[in-house]
Amino acid sequence: MSDKETKVKVTNLTKKFGDLLVLDDISFDVGKGEFLCIVGPTGCGKTTFLNSITHLYEPTSGHILIDGKEVNLKEHNISYIFQENSTMPWLTVEENVRFGLDIKSIPREEATNRVSEYLKIVGLEKYKNYYPNQLSASMLQRVVIARAFVTEPDLLLMDEPYGQLDIELRFKLEDELLELQRRTGTTVIFITHNIEEAVYLGERILILTNKPTKIKSSVFVDMQHPRNIADEEFVEIRNKVTDLIKWW
Ligand SMILES: Nc1ncnc2c1ncn2[C@@H]1O[C@H](COP(=O)(O)OP(=O)(O)OP(=O)(O)O)[C@@H](O)[C@H]1O
C-alpha cells in the first residue's frame, strides 16, 4: 500500500463453494482515497471477492475491515457499480440519483442539494426529468456514477463497469470518474480484465492468479493524470502487468 491511512484491510480471506476453493488466503490493504485496480484471469473469483466484501457471500474464513471494523452494511456505506445498466426504469434521472439518499433518510433539502450538485458534475442537470429509456449509454453510466458518488460512500466497488462500451466513450467516462474520485477522495476498488484500463486508472494494480486465487503481484503506477497510453512509461507498465498475468 502507499503511505495513506488504511481504509480497507483484507486479512487471510478464503472463500470455498463446497469443495471448490476460489479465494485462497488473500491479504491486502487499500489506502483511504486510493484507486486500486484488480485484474485476474476469467473465473478466478473477482466477483466472489466483491460479493464477500458486501457480505452477499459469507467468507469461509478471514476478515474484511473498513476503518478498523468488520464490514457491516448497516454501518458502512458501500456503493457498487456493475457492467449492466442498473438504473431503475420507472424512476427519473433525478429520482434514480436520489434513491440511495432516501434509503438513508437524508433530510429532504440536503438530498435535493446533493443530487443537484452531482447531476451538475456529470452534466445531466438538464435531463433530470428524463427516464432511463430516453438516455444514451453514456448518459446512463453517468446516472449510475452520480448515484454512487452522491451517497459519499466509504468504498466504491466497480465490477467491469465499462466492459461493453466503445473505446472512445470508455476513455471519456474514465476521465470523468477520475475527476470525481479526485474531488471526493472516495476509495475505489475497480475490477477489470483490461490491462490498459487498469494502468490508465489505478494508483496500484493487484494481479490475481488462476484459481485457487492468490495475489500474484502488486504494481504501483506512479504517473500523473491524465495518462497518455502511448507514453513510454505507460507502455512499460502495461507490458510489465501483461507479463505478470500471462493467463492466455
Ligand atoms: N454461488 C456460487 N456457487 C458455487 N460456485 C460459485 C458461486 N459463485 C461463483 N462460483 C464459482 O467461483 C469461481 C469464481 O467465480 P467468479 O464469478 O467470482 O469469477 P470472476 O473472476 O468474477 O469471473 P469473470 O472473470 O468471468 O467475471 C467460478 O468457478 C464460479 O463457478
UniProtKB/TrEMBL annotation:
Q: Which GO terms describe its molecular function?
A: ATP binding; ATP hydrolysis activity
Keyword hit for Zinc-finger = no
**Pfam hit, one:** ABC_tran
Q: Where is the ABC transporter domain?
A: 8-235
| Key words of the record | ATP-binding, Nucleotide-binding, Transport
Question: PROSITE patterns this protein is in?
Answer: ABC_TRANSPORTER_2 (PS50893)
Record's protein name: ABC transporter
Q: Which organism is it from?
A: Vagococcus elongatus
